[in-house]
Design goal:
Blueprint lengths: L10 H4 L3 H7 L4 E5 L4 E3 L7 E5 L3 E7 L5 E7 L19 E6 L1 E7 H9 L2 H27 L2 H13 L6 E2 L3 H8 L3 H13 L3 E4 L2 E4 L2 H7 L2 H13 L7
Antiparallel strand pairs: 1-7, 2-6, 3-7, 4-5, 4-6, 8-10, 9-10
Helix pairs in contact: 4-9, 5-7, 5-8, 6-7
Pfam families: cNMP_binding (PF00027), HTH_Crp_2 (PF13545)
Keywords: DNA-binding, Transcription, Transcription regulation
Protein name: Crp/Fnr family transcriptional regulator
C-alpha cells in the first residue's frame, strides 16, 4: 500500500487501541470517491461504513419534492454510517461525496461486532456520534437564522479543517444543494466574500485567501461545532 495514503490518515482509525486496530486493519478496503458519488440514499440498508481519509462526504436530508440541504459533513475526523451501530439498519439521510478523494470501507457486520464488544472502540464511536449530532443541531440553527454568506463561511471553514488544501472544486449547483439555497444566492454570497478579499471565486472553484478573515466573518456556529469536536475527539497532535 502506498505510503501516501494510509488508513490512519483517518483520525478515528489513527487513535484505535492496538488490539482494536489489529482486528480490523486487514478488513479495511481503500476506495476512491469521485465528486458527486452517492454512497447511499435515504432508506438504503447500510452494508458498509466509510472512514474518509482525503475525501469529504455530505449528509443531506432530501425532501419529497427533491429539494435537499446539508445536515453535516464528514471528513478525516470521522466515519459515514453511524446509524449502523446506533440500532438502525438504514438512515433518513443521503450521503454524497462533496470533495473527491479516498476513504476506507469496512463491512457493516464487522463494525457492529466491534461496537458490541464494548471497550475503547465503542466509547470512541459514541463520542464521535455525539460530535456529529452536535454538528447537525448547529447546522439546522445556522440554516434558519444566519445569512447565506455566513453559512458559506461556515461550510468553507469546516471543509478546510478536513482538507490539506485551501482550494475547493465544487459546482455552483452542488454548493446550492448543500446549503439548501438557490444558485443565485450562492453566487451573490461568494462574490461578496471575494470583494472582501477572503476568497477567489470562479464557477466550480473556490480558493480561500484569508482564513482569519473568514473566521472573523463567520457566525458562532462554526466555533460551536469545532469546540465540541475538539472536546469530544482525541487530539492527534497530543498522541
Amino acid at each position: 500500500m502506498s505510503n501516501a495514503h494510509q488508513p490512519k490518515d483517518n483520525h478515528l482509525l489513527a487513535v484505535l487501541a492496538p488490539a482494536d486496530w489489529h482486528r480490523i486493519a486487514h478488513q479495511l478496503a481503500r476506495v476512491d470517491m469521485p465528486l458527486g458519488q452517492v454512497l447511499y440514499e435515504s432508506g438504503d440498508r447500510l452494508d458498509h461504513v466509510y472512514f474518509p481519509s482525503t475525501a469529504i462526504v455530505s449528509l443531506l436530508y432530501v425532501m419529497e419534492n427533491g429539494a435537499s440541504a446539508e445536515i453535516a459533513v464528514v471528513g478525516n475526523e470521522g466515519l459515514v454510517g453511524i446509524a449502523l451501530f446506533m440500532g438502525g439498519e438504514s438512515t433518513a439521510s443521503r450521503a454524497i461525496v462533496q470533495s473527491a478523494g479516498r476513504a476506507y470501507r469496512l463491512d457493516a457486520q464487522i463494525l457492529k461486532d466491534e461496537f458490541d464488544r464494548g471497550g475503547p472502540m465503542q466509547r470512541l464511536l459514541l463520542r464521535y456520534t455525539q460530535a456529529l449530532i452536535s454538528q447537525m443541531v448547529q447546522t439546522a440553527a445556522c440554516n434558519r437564522h444566519h445569512s447565506i454568506d455566513q453559512q458559506l463561511c461556515r461550510w468553507l471553514l469546516l471543509s478546510l479543517d478536513r482538507l490539506p488544501s485551501n482550494e475547493r472544486r465544487m459546482t455552483q449547483g452542488l454548493i446550492a444543494n448543500m446549503l439548501g439555497v438557490r444558485r443565485s444566492g450562492v453566487t451573490e454570497a461568494a462574490l461578496k466574500l471575494q470583494r472582501a478579499g477572503l476568497i477567489r471565486y470562479s464557477q466550480g472553484y473556490i480558493e480561500v485567501l484569508d482564513r482569519p478573515g473568514l473566521e472573523g466573518r463567520v457566525c458562532e456556529c462554526y466555533r460551536v461545532v469545532k469546540r465540541e469536536s475538539d472536546r469530544l475527539l482525541p487530539d492527534l497532535e497530543a498522541l
